[in-house]
Amino acid sequence: MLEKNPETVKIVFKNMPLKFHKSADPAARAALAAKEQGKFWEFHDKLFAADKLNMDIIKKIAVELKLDMAQFEKDMNSPRIRARLEKDLLDAQKAGVTGTPTVFINGRTPKRRSLAGFQLIINDELTKLKN
Description:
It is a single chain. This protein has two domains: 99 residues, Glutaredoxin (3-Layer(aba) Sandwich); 31 residues, no CATH class. Helix content is 56%, strand content 0%. It has six helices and no strands. The longest helix is centred in the middle third of the chain and has 17 residues. The chain is mostly helical.
């Protein structure tokens, strides 16, 4: 969607680690720590491509991305990263999010979860701006 709409679409990613998944919280904190080194999306993509998720996999991804491991581990456990994750969780709660992934386009939740469905809403929102 970003490639097709580079001037009009902004992607905002919020974390919502589900409590029943014991590796979700450390994975979210790890992705935020990777962001501190400019590697959020690379880290994100490798997390979601992993067959399983645990601390060994999380650390392996950090090494593969050549992150400064001392800084990564410090950031991953920092109060600032924990506060950012807590804010994401509060934002999700306020928005009524109950599961992942959830997509909003200008506050609207697409019924058609496809690129074509997303584009219809984007086009509709752009039309509203012109009127």
